[in-house]
Amino acid sequence: MKAFIDENRDDYGVEPICRVLPIAPSTYHEHAARQADPSRVPARERRDIELCQQIGRVFAENFGVYGVRKVWRQMKREGFDIARCTVSRLMRQMGLKGVVRGKTIRTTISDSSAPCPLDRVNRVFKAPRPNMLWVSDFTYVATWNGFVYVAFVIDVFARRIVGWRVSRSARAEFVLDALEQALHQRRPFAGSGLVCHSDRGSQYVSIRYTERLADAGIEPSVGSVGDSYDNALAETVIGLFKTEVIHRRGPWRSFEAVEFATLEWVDWFNNRRLLEPIGNIPPAEAEAAYYAQLEAMPIAA
């Protein structure tokens, strides 16, 4: 409305236009004065402008997936004195919205003829330290060249992704590759009590997969039949992956595009994404705090 007056004031004058439009001439003149002299802008409005810039930055740096709560928590972590309601108001003005998870699609194809390990987790997805409980699962992504499959191995303690792999086929080899990456990164020792849990998918109960777990000294665990929560934590992480990357940035052209996007997301997820179940900090920070506490214990003693 103010831009319209600016364009037509030379032809019709400000007051005649304001008599037609629902705006007082004094309001328009005050707006023009503020544009000419920014010091006349009220303090709250100036602060809103500054906060909008910071909110937009936080939103963009986090894949554009954060809603009000996580944008607010990230800004508080960075030292901004800002109320959640202020973040909500400004994000609404800016048209910024976080992503919302959709319905989960199950990809498990069980093999009833294959011997299955016991369920050693019983839906209790908690661990008092890293390298005590891993969960693993995979999902699929449609591309212009066919389906590709993405497998993850997650350490339950801080929900850190310790292994992942993208493949053109859903054979046992590709979930084994994700496990090998986890083993290389974490280097668990035999007898540490580490358990690796999965659903009853044929890839996870295959002989090669279970033998590799045994070679590494890891206890296998497989969820129960007909239990929609048998691998809930892994499915939660995969749900975030599908919502924050696959559904937002598709359609996907190729295997390579999915692989690179997964690489970017895993790095962000592990090192910068705030996770509410572990205290609204990133997984890497939660693990670092655990090990720092261990180092401090002998000193305190």
Strands side by side in the biggest sheet: 3-2-1-4-5
Overall morphology: elongated
The helix-strand sequence is HHHHHHEEEHEHEHHH
Mean pLDDT: 86
Q: Main sheet, how many strands, which sense, barrel?
A: 5 strands, mixed
Q: How would you summarize the topology of this molecule?
A:
Layout: H1 2-12, H2 14-20, H3 25-36, H4 43-61, H5 68-77, H6 84-94, E1 133-143, E2 146-155, E3 160-167, H7 172-186, E4 195-198, H8 207-215, E5 219-222, H9 232-249, H10 255-271, H11 283-300
Parallel strand pairs: 1-4, 4-5
Antiparallel strand pairs: 1-2, 2-3
Helix pairs in contact: 1-2, 4-5, 4-6, 5-6
Describe this structure in words.
The protein has 301 residues and is an alpha/beta fold. The chain is built from 11 helices and 5 strands. The protein has helices at 2-12, 14-20, 25-36, 43-61, 68-77, 84-94, 172-186, 207-215, 232-249, 255-271, 283-300; strands at residues 133-143, 146-155, 160-167, 195-198, 219-222. The radius of gyration is 26 Å and the shape is elongated. The relative contact order is 0.11.
In short:
The protein is α/β, with parallel strands linked by helices and 301 residues long.
Keywords for this entry:
single chain, 301 residues, alpha/beta, five-stranded mixed sheet, elongated
